[in-house]
């Protein structure tokens, strides 16, 4: 069973009461006697029904216990240094040493039982009830005429995987048609987003780099295009540091509210990359040529207050009251006449659309070439081999 397979599909299937029943029955069977093969199979099914992502550490533990139960001690060669995901999985399995299969099975069943119990109790939270199904990397909710799209990879600082770019596009597409007045993009955890997931550059077979760079540029063009064309008011709720693409697209938002803990960082030169998200056009327009150059060319990191002074951020709030103040404000705005608000947005934005699409296309063609450069490849390798951080 692949790690992804072990944890996929959590949002599908049984509702809270049936989950609670299954968790209870797993718990009863494990306490009465050692876990049976039937308990193990039931636990494997139970894993697929979990709604809350337990995080990578737990997923690795589940993977390792699964392998130990079904195959015994780790018996395969260690994957190569750049095969980071398989190496982490191998390490987790190998760490179980000679743990007997029966003990591994019991531990797997126990772990799933614990996860199911906390998952069931978390389901009574109102937000879980409102959560839209079908997203693995986002939590999308709608309430008070506001659709909130929350990036949900807190352990990875909400770094954007290919799947996440696609899910954000899907969520925006759905939100453009739902009955919400305002759409919010925000992050779960201590970061807003650390930008493009540098793992997107990994596991590319030899000789496929050019093709993948082309596909990456198409994906990025479509992603940024969704923001350019988005018809309703778009609000960024910046709960913490923001890096790379998560910063550059802010010029396409209508409001940007930031916690005073947030920072804004576009270190493209350090990464051998060039500006995207239409920032080569929107940033000089918003903050002037000189300030834009400091950010986009020289990678100057701005505090929330500096970003506000330069016009990139609408308003900064103290972190301790950030969520309360921002959501109170947004709930009030969401009661404004919906159609008028949307028409006003069109008036403000429509004149620029053609220009923005042209800028988007140009930026992506430059980036496509940058991704193939030694400067970019070395910077990515440096981060992934833990030699560099921003
Ligand atoms: C040829 C194919 C091309 C395909 C292209 C697809 C589309 C591309 C679009 C390109 C667009 C945009 C460019 C950008 O966005 S550039 C910005 C890229 N971001 C970074 O360089 C940030 C790198 N991260 C860091 O420097 C640090 O992690 C941090 C954010 C400063 C946080 O440091 P920390 O010490 O507080 O936490 P740390 O332990 O490092 O992080 C926790 C775990 O999260 C992982 N992680 C964080 N950010 C990223 C990231 N951007 N990519 C991948 N992984 C990330 C980190 O590795 C830790 O993981 P683990 O716990 O060790 O497993």
From TrEMBL:
Specify the protein name: Enoyl-CoA delta isomerase 2
Q: Which family does it belong to?
A: In the C-terminal section; belongs to the enoyl-CoA hydratase/isomerase family.
UniProt entry keywords in alphabetical sequence: Acetylation, Isomerase, Mitochondrion, Peroxisome, Phosphoprotein, Transit peptide
Task: Write out the catalysed reaction.
Answer: a (3E)-enoyl-CoA = a 4-saturated (2E)-enoyl-CoA; a (3Z)-enoyl-CoA = a 4-saturated (2E)-enoyl-CoA; (3Z)-octenoyl-CoA = (2E)-octenoyl-CoA; (3E)-tetradecenoyl-CoA = (2E)-tetradecenoyl-CoA
Subcellular localization(s) per the UniProt record: Mitochondrion; Peroxisome matrix
Q: What does this protein do?
A: Able to isomerize both 3-cis and 3-trans double bonds into the 2-trans form in a range of enoyl-CoA species. Has a preference for 3-trans substrates.
Return the broad EC class. Answer: isomerase
Taxonomically, the superkingdom here is Eukaryota
Pfam families for this protein: ACBP, ECH_1
Q: Its pathway?
A: Lipid metabolism; fatty acid beta-oxidation
Q: What is the lineage of its organism?
A: Eukaryota, Metazoa, Chordata, Craniata, Vertebrata
Q: GO terms for molecular function, please?
A: delta(3)-delta(2)-enoyl-CoA isomerase activity; fatty-acyl-CoA binding
EC number in record: 5.3.3.8
State the GO CC annotations: mitochondrion; peroxisomal matrix
